[in-house]
Specification:
binds nickel (II) ion; alpha+beta; 5-stranded antiparallel β-sheet
Length: 179
């Protein structure tokens, strides 16, 4: 396993649409493992392949490990990674939910985003088997955020232009300051 370098906004790759994966083979499983390790290292709860510079429709999530938010909620911090290849939203609720979202490609930036409260996802798992899962609460928000990445959309695209520009400016300042 390896920790992979992340890309950050405003990297133009973040606006690209990722390609479907033809087959879940060992090369893909290696990428999935590396992505989980990278996500844990950065205390993230979700990561899309594009964020490590790979334009494939792959995402990983783990709500139970490393996440500060999970620790604040009194969680056990146990690792329970979810691997999704070619995930698709096949149903979503009319009811909506608001979560304060962040993103490993926008370090230190957070904003409230409104999304459908529940979604049903079809995807291929680590072994290439087709799965269908109903997602609610934080898992629902997280999977929608990550699937957005596969379509070249980031959480700031859900905000007003004013809020989005504010975050992009803050990020620019932060990067200048750190380099
Ligand atoms: Ni993100």
């Amino acid at each position: 396993m390896a920790i992979l370098p992340l890309i950050y906004s405003p990297d133009p790759l973040l606006k690209k649409i990722s390609e479907p994966v033809a087959e879940v083979n060992d090369e893909i499983r290696q990428l999935l493992d590396d992505m989980v390790e990278t996500m844990h290292d950065r205390q993230g709860i979700g990561l899309a392949a594009v964020q490590v510079g790979v334009l494939k429709r792959i995402l990983v999530m783990d709500l139970g490990y490393g996440s500060k938010r999970y620790a604040e909620a009194g969680g056990e911090g146990e690792s329970n990674p979810i691997h999704m290849v070619n995930p698709e939203i096949v149903a979503s609720s009319d009811e909506e939910n608001i979560y304060e979202e962040g993103c490993l490609s926008f370090p230190g930036q957070f904003a409230e985003v409104i999304r459908p409260k529940m979604v049903t996802i079809e995807y291929l798992d680590y072994d290439g088997n087709k799965q269908r899962v109903d997602c609610d609460e934080l898992l629902s928000t997280c999977v929608q955020h990550e699937i957005d990445h596969l379509n070249g959309i980031t959480f700031v695209d859900h905000l007003s232009r004013v809020k989005r520009n504010m975050i992009l400016k803050k990020l620019e300042k932060q990067f200048k300051h750190n380099m």
